[in-house]
Amino acid sequence: MIRTILRTAFLSLALLAVAAGGPVANGPLPGLLPLFPATNWWNLDVSSAPVDVNSAAYITFIGSSRGMHPDFGGEVSPGSVQIYGFPYAVVDGTQPKVAVRFAYYDESDGVNHPSSAGYPFYPIPDEAKTQNHWIEGGEPGNQDLRSMADRHLLIVDRDNEYLYELYNVFWNGSQWLAGSGAFFDMKTNNRRPDTWTSADAAGLAILPGLVRYDEVAGSAEIGHAFRVTVRATNGYVFPASHRAGSNSQALPMGARLRLKAGKDISGFTPEVQKIFRAMKTHGLIVADNGSDLFVSGTFDNRWDNDVLNPAFSAIKASDFEIVQLGWQGGPASTPQPTSTPTATRTATSSPVATATRTPASATPTPTPGRPRRPHTRAVPPRTFMPPF
Questions:
Q1: Measuring CA to CA, which residue among 246, 260, 256 is closest to residue 286?
Q2: CB 226 within 8 A of CB 292
């Protein structure tokens, strides 16, 4: 009864904020689920995709007995500032745009690239400056934690189905600063230009790859892959566009792990089984350097890590196989060479997708990339508000 009341209250507050038209932290997402078109790489059914010839070696490098971990949850303790998982902001189409000054301006959107100056482009709500739980980690934007955490800020324009993602943000009192930023029109498949990053090291969008409570608790199957980190990477393959490592034994960014079809998941709760079925159908996509087999999800106080942690830990690296690197659909084939599209670099105030979907090599591409900090904070068991 308490669980039902709390869940209803959470949803009611979100719906009231949506009705009022203002920014909502972790509010309802627009359109049909999953996010992005059915043909998008996040949403592909890879259950019949060919296994990579080096699959066993890659799994051995990760460590066959390495268990998965849910890199998401709720507040670190009830009422705490710090949180687990990715929060996100939902705004309407009238949210004012602001300029952001980027460290990696040459690979970011919303920038006049010749001058490196940002222009009003990102619909960042003012609440993110001073309020908790709008930015990854939990602390508000006016706290400078860039040297200690990734500090992602994800923003959805629900009216236009636009996605804006920022990495390593800080509000310095007069301007937003960030490491990098990317725009995605969620009605299209707009892959980043080759060699470009996004708010994620692989150059991918983050939000469509998160395990989300609304999908797990809903009646439909989960229709997309999940974001995963590994401790080291080597170049990148489609759908990634950016590298952040060169360990010859490691998987490239954009590689896809698939839970083996024969893995018995019947002993888990129905909600956990649903997550694991998505891993069999859509897989996990390597998107950043971090701890091995840490699967990303949303911040949500309804998660129960007393259920999630042991369930994920029971699934080992040896229960996965690697899909053929660079696979884009259809039977196994000879990988196509890397194509480098011309980036759209405009100084207009309207969102412009940076590139169209183009092939990337199935051989890890050794292009320059920035180092990324590993995720080191583990999610402990939590006993309040069980969701299932």
A1: 256
A2: no
Question: Are 381 and 311 contacting, i.e. CB atoms less than 8 angstroms apart?
Answer: no
pLDDT tens track for 215-228 = 999 999 999 999 99
Element (H, E) at 257: strand 256-259
Q: Is the pLDDT of residue 50 over 80?
A: yes
Q: The whole model's pTM is what?
A: 0.86
Residue 331 lies in a domain: no
**Is residue 382 included in any domain, yes or no?**
no
Tokens 């106080």 -> residue: 301
Q: Is 61's pLDDT higher than 60?
A: yes
Q: Domains in the chain: how many in total?
A: 1
Strand-strand pairing, 180-185 and 320-322: unpaired
Strands (E), 82-212: 89-91, 100-102, 111-112, 117-118, 153-157, 162-167, 170-171, 176-178, 180-185
Is residue 214 one of the residues assigned to a domain?
A: yes
Confidence label for 72 from pLDDT (cuts 50, 70 and 90): very high
Sheet holding 180-185, edge to edge: 24-25, 89-91, 153-157, 162-167, 180-185
Residues 322-379: tens digit of each pLDDT? 999 999 986 654 443 333 333 333 333 446 443 333 334 455 554 444 444 444 344 4
Rounded CA Rg of the chain: 20
Range of the domain at 120: 21-322
User: Phi, psi (5° rounding) for residue 238?
Assistant: -55, 135
Sort 311 into a burial class: Cβ within 10 Å, 0-12 / 13-18 / 19+: buried
Decide: helix, strand or coil at residue 338: coil
Strand, helix or coil at 365?
A: coil
Q: Is the peptide bond before 381 cis (omega within 30 degrees of 0)?
A: no
Residue 348 maps to a domain: no
